[in-house]
Amino acid sequence: MTSEPLRLLVWCLVAVTAVLLVLTSVTLVGQARERAAATSAEAGPVFERHGVRLRLPAPAEVLSARERLFYADLDGGTAAAVRGAALLVPGACPEVPGSSRGFVGVVRSGGTSATAHDLQVAAWSAGLGAAVGEHPQEVELPDARGRRTDLVAEVRIDGPCQPERVRASLLTLLADGRPATVVLVRDVGPSDALDEATAELLLATAAAGEAR
Predict the structure, then answer these.
(1) 53 CB-near residues (< 8 Å, 6+ apart)
(2) Number of domain units in the chain
(3) In the chain, helix, strand, coil percent, each to 5?
(4) Closest by alpha carbon to 124, among 86, 79, 163?
(5) Environment class of residue 30 by beta-carbon count within 10 Å: exposed (0-12), middle (13-18) or buried (19+)?
(6) Is residue 78 exposed (0-12), middle (13-18) or buried (19+ Cβ within 10 Å)?
(7) What residues contact 94, with CB distance under 8 A and at least 6 apart?
(8) Rounded CA gap, 68 and 62, in Å?
(9) Using an 8 Å Cβ cutoff, are 5 and 144 in contact?
(10) Does residue 130 fall inside a structural domain?
(11) Predicted local distance difference test score (pLDDT) of residue 13
C-alpha cells in the first residue's frame, strides 16, 4: 500500500472520489505537423521528466512528481499510469473538481525502445478502452526521433462534459540511452480543447534533456 496521491482517469464518474476527468477526442493528424510549425501559440512552462523536456501550451498545471494519474483496467487494477504529469486546460468541467482537457507526461520502460513502446501502447490502449467503453484503433505515425503511435476511440460512456472521441499520442525516444515514452491524452472536439496544431506543436518540442 502506498501513500502517494492518486487520480483515477475515468469517463464514468459514478461513485468516484479524487477523480481527474480528462476530456478527450480525436481527428487523424493529416497536415497538423505542418500547421504546428507555423503556429505561434502562447507557450507555457518547460516541463521535464525522465530526461525528456517539453514546452507546455498555456494554460497548464504541473502536478507533483509524487502524484500518479492512472487508468483502471476492466478488473479494477492499474492498466496504465504516469507520475508528475501536466494537466492541459485545467478546470475545463465546472461539474468535476480537478478536471482538465487533457494531460501530458513521460513514462520510463525497460528493454529496448521497440519493446518499451509496444508495452506502453498495449497498456494505454487497455486503459483507454476500459475508460471509454471501446477498444482504441492504433495509428502508426512517422517520427524521426523514435516511434509514435496514436490511439483513437469513440467515448461510449456517459458523464459530465463528455466528448465524442478520445485521442492519445505515445512517442518513444531515447533519453540518456534509455527509452522514455511521452504520453499525451487530449480532447480535440470542444471549443476550449487543444486544437491539432497546438497538440502537434507540443509533441514537436519533445527532446532529450538532462535526466531528473
Answers:
(1) 46, 47, 205, 206, 207, 208, 209
(2) 1
(3) 15, 40, 45
(4) 79
(5) exposed
(6) middle
(7) none
(8) 12
(9) no
(10) yes
(11) 25
Q: Which three cell numbers stand for residue 87?
A: 494537466
In which residue are the cell numbers 502537434 written? 200
Which set of grid coordinates corresponds to residue 86?
501536466
- pLDDT per position as a tens digit, 192-205: 888 888 999 999 99
User: Which run of H or of E encompasses 107?
Assistant: strand 102-108
pLDDT of residue 32: 44
Q: What is the pLDDT of residues 64-107, one digit of tens each?
A: 999 999 988 888 899 999 999 999 988 888 887 878 888 999 99
1 found inside a domain: no
What is the grid cell recorded at 109? 520502460
Domain extent at residue 98: 6-208
